[in-house]
Structures are given as structure tokens and as C-alpha cells.
Amino acid sequence: MVNTILKTKNVKLKYGDFEALHGIDLDFNQNEITALIGPSGCGKSTYLRCLNRMNDLIDGVTVTGDFDFQGADVYADDYDIVDLRKQIGMVFQQPNPFPMSIYDNVVYGLRVAGVRDKATLDEAAQTSLKQAAIWDEVKNKLDQSALALSGGQQQRVCIARALAVSPDIILLDEPTSALDPHSSRQIEATLLQLKEKYTIITVTHNLQQAARIADKTAFFLSGDLIEAADTKQIFMNPEHKETSDFITGRFG
Amino acid sequence: MDKIRESILTKSHASKLERRGKIISFMCLGGICLIVLAIFIFIAYRGLATFTSDHVSIFKFLGGTKWNPEVTENGHPLVGALPMITGSFLITILATLLALPFAIGTALMMTDITPKMGTRILQPVLELLVGIPSVVYGFVGLTVVVPFMRSIFGGSGFGILAGTFVLFVMVLPTITSMTVDALKSVPKDYRSASLALGATRWQTIYKVVLRTATPGILTAIVFGMARAFGEALAVQMVVGNAALMPTSLVAPASTLTSVLTTGIGNTVLGTVQNDALWSLALILLLMSLAFNLAIHLIAKRGELKR
Q1: Complex ipTM value
Q2: N or C: chain A end with fewer CB closer than 10 Å?
């Protein structure tokens, strides 16, 4: 029985007068990887940022639509935005560890949530670094600066940092586009393992990546959701002509 | 064949121009270096005369508390500079400490809290504060701050505290605008990452933004201190100009710069009194060198961390 963890309906987003998303209906299943694909500027990253309300930070943005996350409306006035972001974590395109030690990076989310107990922090750091498949590479240098790591390692530390607050959903905004192929493969393998415990929504420019790791794939074009279905179906037998054009590389 | 050879071997017009430009730039650079070097040598030569030709012990100069170059005691002129050195440091440190919270608060308003209002209102205000001549600050200090001090603490109102308040306004724009630069150089990614982890805005500012910007903010503080240490006119107008060891913050005192500006026109070149003033100038110069050194060290340490 597949459980739907997050439902969105008629999501519209405006920058001032310009409408960037024209009503997106999309649901996400628990413990699945959903990939959002589409050409640059199609709104897939913008949509992703609606889910943990990161667009709130940008001046002049208005978001409308229904967001049902575990039965609650994410955009309700009394919804605790800090709480939301603890439950829906995010990993960004550029690896962006803080200029602190690896350990301090990973436990940052817990510390701002008020966790002070050293044993709890230690355990969370170890668990999440293991989940992000980077523990073996950094276990002897947890007190060193995270900025001294390679790009791929930094990105996995960022994933560990997002995992440490034990979110339900992890949003990834093109997590491998700034990395070399080898590091990308490692991140992909990590994501496939994480699926056991978390729901993953990832934006990607890399169609092969979507085909390799995603259970569901959603195709965006110019602010519209053209089609969303099982990854196999999207790649083998898409319903819409735009989708097949994009997937066969005729545009985008 | 020979023609081509010739044209390759002779210099083209463009390369001659390039050479000429280089020579002019180097001459300008050399000229400036020469001037700076000349200033250093001149001040050092004059400033050291107190110790070489007037035979004042350097420890008596730095540690003595009596400043009265006209009077000689046991054959040595009374040129103890400690009151002025203390006055300068007290005013500098107090003014900077007072300005720091205001500067950081204002800078945060401009970068993180209300960037729109920051660029529209605070930025022009800061630029205005920089542009006001120091004599105007001194005049306002003289007519507003000093009487205010008098009415609260009694006495004349002149003193280190009055100087502190005047300097506070003067170093505020320096520290603020440099802190703004430091905060702006903190990558936006850090802020989004922190917020995405469930941190509040204050936690983000406190734990990530300010911490990352610390070397830059320290540089801003040192710059502010250098400005405060060297400011002469405004301080001289409100500090009271009594070359006494400061016993209270509201009693008349003096700084290195205030003694220099009041005294330098009333002494004759080559006399003990004049030499003593040059020695004070030498201390000022060495201190500004020290401030510069501190700025470089902080900047270097900041880079290493990254």
C-alpha cells in the first residue's frame, strides 16, 4: 500500500506580476524518489522551493494553492515555518557546508533546535554521516573544516546535515550538477539507500540520472506540469508529444 | 625578406606606447613611495632628537606623567607622555566599544533584515556622516555634548567622556560600512542552508552570518580604532586639553593629537619643546603602523580559515 505523504494542488507562483507556475497538481509517495525534469527555466526548482517555503525569502513572490503535508496546510497562517523546514529538509545545487568543522556542520540543525546533550549530538552525527555514505572518509577528521573536503564529499556532508534533523522528506535541487561523474554516482547510490527511510524529491538536469534512480518522474515545461508518472512510463511510453521530444533530446 | 625582418626587429608604435605608459606608472609609484619614506625619515629624525640631542630617557618619556616641556627638572625637560598616551587609548577604545553594537546592528539592518530600507535610507545617512567635516563634529560636541556632561557630572564638562561621544559618531560610519561589506561577502548559500535546516533568522544571523564575517568585522573595528586614534580637531575641541594623567572620565584630559594641534604652532623648530611634540607624532605614526599590521594579520588569518 503506497502512502501519499505530500499533496499539492493548483500551485501558482508569481514574481510580482509574472506568473512562473500556472497551477501544478502533484502528489508524492512515501519512500519513493520523485524526479522533476524539464528544460532550464521551466519552474521545476521554483516548484521544489515552494514545498519548504524557501520562496518566502524572495521579495515580491506570492504562492497560492493547496499544500497538504500529513494532513496540514503548509501555507496556513499559523503553520510553523521553522518546524516545516525541520520536516522537509533541503540540499542545494552548490555544496554549501558552513565554514565550520564537519561535526559542527552536521549537528547544526539539532543545535538550533535546542539539543545540547553531547551524546545525542555525537550519535546523530555518526548515524547521519553513515547514512550519507561519508562516515568512513571523515570519521578521523570530524573536527576539521568541512571546506577542506572535495566537492562530492562536501555535498554528502550537506546531505548528512539535512538528515541529522530526521526530516520526513528531503528536497534536492540539482544535487549533482556541480560534481564530477564519479561523485555524482556516489550521491546517486546514497539516495537509493536513503529511500528506505525518507521520501526524496529531486530536481535534475540529468535525464539518465532520473531514469536510474527515480520511481516517479514529473516533466515540467514553461511553468506547467506536462505529465507525471512512473519513471519507466515517462521514458518508454510518454503520453505527451512534448515529453517524448524532451526525452529524445529534440529540445531542452 | 629584409623588409619583414626589419619590421619585426623594430619596435611598433603600440609597443612604444605600452612602454611609455609603464614608465609613467612606475614613476608615479616611485614618487609616492619616496614621499612616504621621506615622511617616515623626517618624523623619525625629529622625533628621536628628544632622546639623542636633548638626552631624555625613552622610559621617562613613555612612562613619565608630567608634561611641561618648558620646565627642566634635574637638567632634563619634563616630557612625560603617559597622560596623552593614556588619553588617546582610552578615548579610542571607549569610542570603538560604544560604536560597535550600533555598527553591527545597523549593518545587519542593511544586509539581512530590511535591505531595501538599508540601501534607500541608511546608506545615504552613513555617507553623509562620513562627509561632515570634523570641525563641525567638534563644534556640535562643544555646544551640545560638553554642556550636557557638565549638567550631569558637574565640573567643566570637558574630558574623555565628551571626546568619546564625539568620536563615537565619527567612527560609526567607518565601522558600519566595513561591517556591511563583511556581511555582504557571506555567501547567500549559507543563509539559505541554515534556514532550510529549521534555523530562525536570528539563529542564522548569530550562528552563521556573524561568525563567518568575524574577520571582516575585526578589520572594521581596527579601521575604526585607527580613525579614532588619529582624529585631532574634534577631540581637541571637547577633551579639555589638560596634559594631566586622567583620573576621571569627565575631568579635562588630553590626547596625543590634541597636544600636537594645540602645541605645534607655538614652538620653535629645534627646541626641546618642539622635539617633544615630534616624538608624540612619532608615536602616532608607529601606532597607525601597528593598526595596519593588525589589519593585515586579521585578513590573513581569515583567509587561512576559508
Answers
A1: 0.88
A2: N
Residue type, A53: R
Where is B69: in which H helix or E strand?
A: strand B67-73
Task: Pick the residue of B197, B204, B206, B301 with the most A CBs within 10 A to test the interface with A by mutation.
Answer: B197
Contacts with B192 from chain A: Cβ below 8 Å: 54, 57, 92, 96
Q: Is B255 left (phi over 0), alpha (psi -120 to 50) or beta?
A: beta
| Spatial CA neighbour of B91 closest among B179, B170, B173 | B170
Residue type, B127: E
CATH number, span B82-305: 1.10.3720.10
Does A109 lie at the interface with B, CB-CB under 8 angstroms?
Answer: yes
Instruction: Say how far apart CA A53 and CA B76 lie, in whole Å.
Output: 76
Using CA atoms in the order B132, B135, B137, B143, what is the torsion angle rounded to 10 degrees?
A: -140
Q: Which residue has the higher pLDDT, B144 or A177?
A: B144
Domain borders along chain A are 4-247
User: Tell me: the pLDDT tens digits for B22-75?
Assistant: 999 999 999 999 999 999 999 999 889 888 887 888 888 888 888 887 777 777
- Nearest Cα residue to B96 out of B213, B186, B230, B205: B230
Question: Could you confirm whether domain A4-247 is CATH 3.90.70.10?
Answer: no
Q: A99 vs chain B: nearest CA distance in angstroms?
A: 7
